[in-house]
Every structure is written in C-alpha cells, then in structure tokens.
C-alpha cells in the first residue's frame, strides 16, 4: 500500500478525497510528492491509498487525473531531455491528446532536464542556454502553479472541496555578502575616469583608515525597517580563489568587524545564513564557523553553483534546512518552472530531500552584468516581473550589499527601494528563513 505523509502548512487546510493510483509504475512516489506540493500550494492535506480513493490517478482516459505511459517509459529509461518530453510547448501530453499536468509538474519541479547531459558554463553551472525555458522563451512564467490550478479545475471533486488559493505572495529578501572592503578597489577606476576626485579620495580614506561603505550593513537594516521588511544575509566563510577561478570573501569570518555585523543583524530581528563557497570544504565545516549567529541553517551557494542532485544531497547530509540557490544567473525567472517554496525531490533515490528550496526570481547582477542593463531599465523590468507574481508565490530576491553603496551608479539603491515600495503597495510581505522552516 502506498502511504503519503502530509506536509504541514502555514495556512488553514481542508480535507480532500482520498487519492488512489491505479498504475503499476515507479512514478507512484514521485506523483505522490507532486500532490504533496500541490497541497502545500493550494492548502490541503492529501492521503493516498491503494484502493477506495475518490480521485483516481491512472493512465487510462476516464481517470480523474490521467498520466502518460509515454512519460513513464521515458522516465524508466532515463531519457530526460526536454526535446523528448515537450513538443510544441512546455506541456506533456497523453496518447489521446489529453494534457498530462501531473507528469509535467514532476518533470519541472524535480529539474529532470538537469539529469540529462549538458555542457556546463565556465563556473560549472547548468546554463539557461539549451534549457526548455530558453527553447520556449518562458523562463518568467510560473508554469507549475498554472498547471496546479488546471489540475484542481479539471477534477470536479477537488474544485468543489478545495478551490484555488487566494493569497498574497511572500518574498525572501536576501543579501549575499561577497565583499566588505571592495568599495574603493571596485570603483576607483570608474571614479577616476569621470574625474570625481573628491569621491575617490573619500573612498580611499575609508578603505585605509576608516570603515568601508560596503560594511555599513546597518544602513540596509534601516532602509528595510522603514518599509516594514526583513531579510537574510548570506556570509562567506572562505577567502581566496577557488580552482575554478571564483573569488571569495575579502574579509575573515572571525574578524571583530564581521562578528559585530553578525550580532547586529540577529539582535535586530534579521537573520544570517551561509553563503557556501566554491571550495572543497563541506557545508558542515563552513556552517561551524557561523555557529551562534544562525536562526536556522539557511544557505545560498556562491555564484549559484548547484549540481542536481549531488549538491542537494550534500546539503541534506549537512543538515541544511532552507536553500535559496535555485535560479539562473544569466536571466530572471524560475529554474524549476515554479515560483513557490517547495521540498526538492531526488529522482534517483525516489525520495524528497529534507529541506525547503526557495526559488530565486530576481538578482541584481543578472541585469547589470549579464543583461547589460542600467539601473533605470532594470528597475522597470523588475517591477514588470513582480507584477506577474503578486499572488500565490514565495520566491527570493537577491540584492548584494555593494549595490546599496554604488557611487558610480547610485540608481541601484533606488531600484531596491522601489521593490520595497511595490511590496507595501501590493501587500506582499517579506518572510524569513525561520518562518518558512517552522511552518
């Protein structure tokens, strides 16, 4: 008998009919996991039994939720290329032409395209180029939520007892602390080129004799406090350059200045997390350096380096409770086709991982370095993205601390403030890792 362990949600839940799988398939457990995530999103607890269910999942056409035997065959043979799964749109179909929303959601949420062969970028990351999101030019769409809605609407019993969720979105505001001392070294050439000698001398003085702009994290707290927002700061514990050429912190995690900032953040009601390095040290080893400054074990990988499922397995082994690494560096949007927090799934072991993943939707460097946009253009684009995700979503926004203190292009600070204003106007609240984990 297949048993489904319900998840516990932050919102009121309702009882729904018992679900029965009338298939002999290794996909029963993955499909059960997808229904768990559907329940988390819509607000119900699911129960799956072998017989007697009121909602039937099967491969035949009269089932309440029909799934494709074509998808089962591809899954069994490890054929996860999106060119095989999707034809003319990001949706898989059964042999009779009926959409297979359940299999499509599993394919997207489990990031199955990343189990197939691909050429990583120069930092070892899964690239946007060649993904199903690039193929259909749809990375900003919250596809899984859309298909969840269609599953509920297509099953009268579910529509009657559950209905569609009507909640304002929540945002995990985050700051990766890659540098605390780079204000002068990063901006001196640009300031000299623009002949802004006074500003250059000011940064030089701060760099050598005072406190660098980038380390004034209390200013970030003040800005967010003014807008009733809270955030999490992700810290590097490693310095120097990795074998892949990635630079790490220009500060030591044991320095008095850093410890002072860690204490300030936590004492004010904000949270700290680990910014896992690209070096060979483990999550547990790096987390140990931050002990005493965590609420929960929250993490984001440096440079968004993430190899599925291996990196997730390392996180789980170390006891990570929440991760916010799942995103594309080169474009804004949803790497798993989904805009809400979820429990990732290991397609090889057939089990969900024991932590929460919060998808990354927006990152400052995406616009400035990858898309080559100035602050004004980026700000307009960001608000457009947010306007499309005002309801029924939980995602993260990454704004590095140096973008609050950019003397060359101060508009990036205003873009972040505009995001906070947008959140207040649309009643979209910030949420902390501890709130998501404790839910």
Textual characterization of the structure:
The chain is an alpha/beta fold. The chain folds into two domains: 148 residues, no CATH class; 268 residues, Glycoside hydrolase/deacetylase (TIM Barrel, Alpha-Beta Barrel), CATH 3.20.20. Helices cover 36% and strands 14% of the residues. The protein contains 17 helices and 17 strands. Strands 7, 8, 9, 10, 11, 14, 15, 16 and 17 form a nine-stranded parallel β-sheet that branches. A four-stranded parallel β-sheet has the order 4-2-5-6, with no helix packed on it. Helix 1 packs across helix 4, helix 4 packs antiparallel against helix 6 and helix 8 runs antiparallel to helix 9. The longest helix is centred in the first third of the chain and has 15 residues. The chain is elongated.
How helical, in percent, are the residues? 25-40%
Count of strand segments: 17
Q: Which percent range describes the beta-strand content?
A: 5-15%
Low-confidence stretches: 1-13
Span of the ends, CA to CA? 29 Å
* CATH C-level of the largest domain: Alpha Beta
Rg over C-alpha atoms, rounded to the nearest angstrom = 23 Å
CATH architecture of the largest domain: Alpha-Beta Barrel
What characterizes the major β-sheet? 9 strands, parallel
CATH level-four homologous superfamily name of the largest domain: Glycoside hydrolase/deacetylase
The averaged pLDDT comes out at 90
Oligomer: single chain
Q: Which structural class best describes the helix and strand composition? A: alpha/beta
Global morphology: elongated
Total domain count: 2
CATH topology of the largest domain: TIM Barrel
What's the number of helices?
A: 17
